[in-house]
Amino acid sequence: MTVSGQTERFKEFIFADGTSKRVPLGVAQKPKYVLEQESGIYSLKRLRFSETKKMWIDTKLGGETGTTNPPTTNSMSGDEPYEELRMVTYNVWFSPRNQAARAKALISITLSKKPHIICFQEVTPVFLSILKADPRIQKEFTLSDTTGTTLRGSKLQYGVLMCVHTGLLIRSWALHVVPSNMSRRPLLARIRILSSKRDQFETDRKKETVAFCDISVATCHFESMNASSVRAQQLAYVFKELDGKNQPIDPDCLKTGNGKVHSEGQQQSDMLFENRFLLGDFNFDADREEGSSEEQSIPKHYVDAWRELRSESSKKESVTVEDIKARLDQIRYHSTR
Fold first, then answer.
1. Which of residues 246 and 138 earns the better pLDDT score?
2. What pTM value is reported for the model?
3. How far apart are CA 278 and CA 151, in angstroms?
4. pLDDT in tens, 96-112
5. Listed range (79-83, 178-182, 197-201, 328-332) with the worst mean pLDDT
6. String of DSSP letters for 263-281
7. Residues 213, 71: contact at Cβ < 8 Å?
8. For the chain, the helix, strand and coil percentages under 3-state DSSP, each to the nearest 5
């Protein structure tokens, strides 16, 4: 029996004749992860590759790759704060056709862009195994999954995956349950970066003040085929979450080197994130379906990155899926600055 976040505790005795008896032990608070899962949110581990153990480990468990301290340098470009943030989104295609060769080539192409955040869709167990074995991925990125536990499907397993550069601090990330007939689940992350301008956050280790910027990033493979109404529901949910404060924040990510939690950092855990991004396979043509139920589900304050940066591009240049001549892959963003 459960009541408003509590669960009944008991000890059960089973006797030789098959009968049983329960002895009440009172009530206890439900664990945080149970409450999250009941609300349709599944928090994920932050997985880093351990050179010592030669395996992917949960950074929360500690060890040589398991730090929860805020990053104080831009590990991609020295000691300077981030002046730009590079993101890549790619539907890797679940087909077994030349899958290993395609995966290796795609990973190389993606890494050549020197991204800070990578969002993949239609990730299969085969693609995941190749990705996590890549030495560059092992050295430079934290992964949302390395064993395939987030991949779903009865006949064909696939899902979304996020890779975040180790110079960024992942405060939390989680899969969210949304209406879907295809086991589609968006992945939402809250990330902190060292920025040239932002609220001040003083570290105990160096007794100096550094600036941080919090961003919210989501990726999703929205419902396929003729499922406009379902896609619209999924889009509405994701944007509501991006604009809201429901994503769980791991308190450990606000700790400094001595384990103390800064009061300012604690206050920031409840803030509305100023920079928000949605990357992925939207499964509707952004250049053809203005006024569609999908477009109407996207808040007006979110900008279509392609249209913003390539407003003069032709339809041919905008295509991301060649066989249907459509721009299904999109990046939408919003900044309150």
1. 138
2. 0.78
3. 20
4. 999 999 999 999 999 99
5. 197-201
6. HHHHHHTTSPPSEEEEEEE
7. no
8. 25, 35, 40
